[in-house]
Automatic annotation (TrEMBL):
Keywords: Iron, Metal-binding, Oxidoreductase
MF GO annotations: metal ion binding; oxidoreductase activity
Name of the featured protein: Fe2OG dioxygenase domain-containing protein
UniProt entry tagged with the keyword Ion transport: no
Highest taxon, organism lineage: Eukaryota
Family the entry assigns: Belongs to the iron/ascorbate-dependent oxidoreductase family.
Record flagged with keyword DNA-binding: no
Classification via Pfam families: 2OG-FeII_Oxy (PF03171), DIOX_N (PF14226)
SUPFAM superfamilies in the record: Clavaminate synthase-like
Organism ancestry: Eukaryota, Viridiplantae, Streptophyta, Embryophyta, Tracheophyta
Residue intervals of the Fe2OG dioxygenase domain: 195-294
Length: 346
C-alpha cells in the first residue's frame, strides 16, 4: 500500500486519481451563494445556564439541522490546547517514516487501528486524494488503548484527552437536541450513543490539480452524530439546495453534522446531508472526525414523539444498528440505496 504521504512530490495528478469529467468538483465561488451561511452557534456554559438564552440556542440547533444538517459550535468546552495537541500528534504520525507506518497499513475494517489511503468503499474505482487512519478512541479503556500506536510519544495521551472532551461535548449537544425535539433530556444517552466511538483522521496533501480529483466522495455518515475538527484549512463541502457549499474554517469552531441514525430517529426532521472533500494546491489539510455511534445491538426507528399517523407517519421501519451497518457497506455508502432498504412506502 503506497500512501500519498510517502510518495515523492507530485507535479501532476496520476491517472488513478483523475475522475471522469462528470464527477469532477465544480467549485462555487462565494458570490454564487449570497446570504447562505452555515450557522455558527455559541454554546458557552454561561449561555446554556440561562433559560432564555438556552432556549434560543436549542432553537438555533434544531433550525440548523432542518435547513443544513450542518452547524459549527464555538465556546464548546474542548480546550484549544487539547485540540492542537492531538492534531499535532496526528500530523506526527502521518510524518513517520514509511517503514514505521507499514505495520499499521490495512484495508481490514475490523481492525481497531489501521492506516490506509483513498477509501474502503468504491474499491477498484478512481482513488481519492486522501490518506487516513481509523481508530477506536472512546471509551478510553485498556481494551481500546492497547491498539493505539506508540509513536509519536504524545499520541496516546493527547488522543485520550481529545476523545474524552469530544465525548462530553457530544453528550451536551445530544441533550440540547432532545430538548429541542420535545424528547426526554436523556433520550440519546443510552444505547443510541453508547457504542464504541470511532475516529477518522484524514490527511489531504496539496494537490497539483484540484479540478480533476476529490479528497473524499459524496456521502452521509452512517452514525448518529459527527464532531469534526477541520483546523484552519477549509475543504469540506455540504450539499444545499442542489449545490455544493464550502464549510468555512472558523477559528476555534468544531463542525457538527447529523448522521443517518439522527435522520431516522427524528423521522426525517433533522437531515443527514451529503458532504464531500475538495483539495487545494498550496496547503495540506488535516481533519479529525469523531463518530458518535449506537451500540451494534441498539434497536433504532423513528421516536414515537416524532410520528403522527395522520399527518406525519413513520418514514422508516425499525431495525438493529448492525443491520444498518451491513446495508451501508453493501450500498457502497450511497445515501439513496442504503435508505431505500429501511423506508416505509405508504
Amino acid at each position: 500500500m503506497e500512501l500519498l504521504t510517502d510518495a515523492r512530490a507530485r507535479h501532476f495528478v496520476p491517472d488513478k486519481y483523475v475522475f471522469p469529467p462528470e464527477k469532477r468538483p465544480a467549485l462555487l465561488p462565494d458570490s454564487d451563494s449570497p446570504g447562505v451561511a452555515f450557522p455558527v452557534i455559541d454554546i458557552h456554559p454561561a449561555t446554556l445556564s440561562d433559560d432564555r438564552r438556552r432556549r434560543l440556542v436549542v432553537a438555533e440547533i434544531i433550525q440548523a439541522g432542518m435547513e443544513f444538517g450542518f452547524l459549527q459550535v464555538v465556546n464548546h468546552g474542548v480546550g484549544e490546547d487539547v485540540v492542537r495537541g492531538f492534531r499535532e500528534a496526528a500530523a506526527g504520525l502521518f510524518a513517520l517514516p514509511a517503514e514505521e507506518k507499514l505495520p499499521y497499513c490495512s484495508d481490514d475494517m475490523s481492525r481497531h487501528f489501521r492506516l490506509a489511503t483513498s477509501t474502503a468503499f468504491h474499491r477498484n474505482q478512481t482513488c481519492y486524494w486522501r490518506d487516513y487512519f481509523r481508530i477506536r478512541c472512546y471509551p478510553v479503556t485498556d481494551e481500546v488503548t492497547r491498539h493505539w500506536p506508540s509513536k509519536p510519544p504524545t499520541f496516546g495521551i493527547s488522543l485520550a484527552e481529545y476523545s474524552t472532551a469530544v465525548h462530553e461535548l457530544s453528550q451536551t449537544l445530544l441533550r440540547l437536541i432532545a430538548e429541542g425535539l420535545g424528547l426526554g433530556a436523556n433520550f440519546f444517552a443510552g444505547d443510541l450513543s453508547a457504542g464504541v466511538t470511532q475516529m477518522n483522521v484524514n490527511y489531504y496533501p496539496p494537490c497539483p490539480d484540484p479540478t480533476v480529483t476529490l479528497g473524499l466522495f459524496p456521502h452521509c455518515d452512517r452514525h448518529l452524530l459527527t464532531v469534526l475538527s477541520q483546523g484552519d484549512v477549509a475543504g469540506l463541502q455540504a450539499r444545499h439546495d442542489g449545490r455544493w457549499l464550502l464549510v468555512p474554517a472558523v477559528p476555534g469552531a468544531l463542525v457538527i453534522n447529523f448522521g443517518h441514525q439522527m435522520e431516522i430517529v427524528t423521522n426525517g426532521l433533522l437531515a443527514s446531508v451529503e458532504h464531500r472533500v475538495v483539495t487545494n494546491t498550496t496547503a495540506a489539510r488535516l481533519s479529525v472526525a469523531t463518530l458518535v455511534t449506537p451500540k451494534m445491538e441498539c434497536r433504532i426507528g423513528p421516536a414515537p414523539e416524532m410520528v403522527d399517523e395522520a399527518t406525519n407517519p413513520a418514514k422508516y421501519r425499525e431495525f438493529i444498528f448492525s443491520e444498518f451497518m451491513e446495508a451501508y457497506a453493501a450500498a457502497d455508502a450511497s445515501r439513496e440505496r442504503v435508505l431505500e432498504s429501511f423506508k416505509i412506502h405508504h
